[in-house]
Amino acid sequence: MSRRRSKGEGSISLRKDGRWAARISTGYHAGKRTRRWVYGETRADVVAKLRDLLHAQEQGSLPAPGRLTVEKFLLRWLEDSAKQRLRPRTFDSYAQVIRLHVVPTLGPVPLQKLRPQQVQAWLNGLQRAGLTPRTCQYARAILRSALAQAVRWGTVARNVATVVDPPRVPRHEIAPLQPEQARSLIEHAKEHRLSALFTVALALGLRQGEALGLQWNDIDIEAGTLNVRRALQRFGGDSAARRPLLAERKRLRKLLPEAEGTEARALLLQQLTEIRAKLKAIKTSPQFVEPKSTRSRRTVALPDVVKSALRAHRVKQLEERLSAGKHWREMGLVFTTTIGTPIEPSNLTKEFQQLLTTAGLQHIRFHDLRHTAATFLLAQGVDPRTIMETLGHSQISLTLNTYSHVLPTLQRDAAERMNRLLMG
Fold first, then answer.
1. Suppose 137 and one of 166, 179, 339, 405 were both cysteines; which one would form an S-S bond, judging by CB atoms 3.0 to 4.6 Å apart?
2. Contact between residue 49 and residue 20 where contact means Cβ atoms under 8 Å apart
């Protein structure tokens, strides 16, 4: 049953169906008094949602009911909510998915009239249009996150995206190196100027951005610890201005092989040069960002092989600094170009693929070094909780699901150990 509300709680009551509900008045619209409702399984849930609702009302970000379309709400959600909590590249990705895949179909629909059947039809349409199941799943996740905020703000009564099943995404086959292949990679990388980077990625399972964002003050070689505090990502520039330029560049490149005559080809090349200059003026740049999640901020213990690699790398870097002289740009980074600037991820990919060719190994992604590290740890009997903390996974279920292909072997080993214990 309802009780006297606390100051600032608004109107809270217990419904006949057992759920709690709260409402606030939002004034008059079209000559009628309007209210916003929020619902929850417990009183505490409703109080928390009501605080968000009152805060949005105070900030003036509570849209007028009845006139809000899905497109208008999503644009407001991106600016008022998503932008504050997402990393820049993730935010750009959200904005692009909403612009390209959500707004064209669901954008004109009044938010309060959005139904699960419309969301399901939208997802089916994306798949028929040729989008991958992973992209469709990602688009649904973004819509679900936005509508969850709409529920907290009291803009809609329920999140219709939660009752629509996401498309099934085929599991990506992980391609970790075998132990002898990993040793071969380290051996062939010894003469490479980024030998320590490949060793760190292989032994510690750092993400590429985390490894490129390492600074020397993050590492204590003597104590044998490494702190992940940031990541390096390339982003920025005016994305709205870049999009038409990139589309035009793509169109011109397709025309280039079919150009007839020297003059036509020269004109296309001139246009491409002009576009390249415009893109350069608004180009992105490598910048430090927060780690992927809260758990991605972590301290990792260093194996001796990593300690030795980092010591040798420190000496090499000092030599490069002396050679570069006044051209050296000191940023405190562990892994840099020959003049101290951040390494471009695309250039690192090229270097890595060349190294794999030299070592006679199959071509894998740099990220597969992270999978290799996790697989080796599991194969050696390290418990999943420790591996989760080492890799910086947000949940242990992510670790178990990602590396489920290794678990059957561990389960057989556990069964054999149990058998030896009980049978003597």
1. 166
2. no
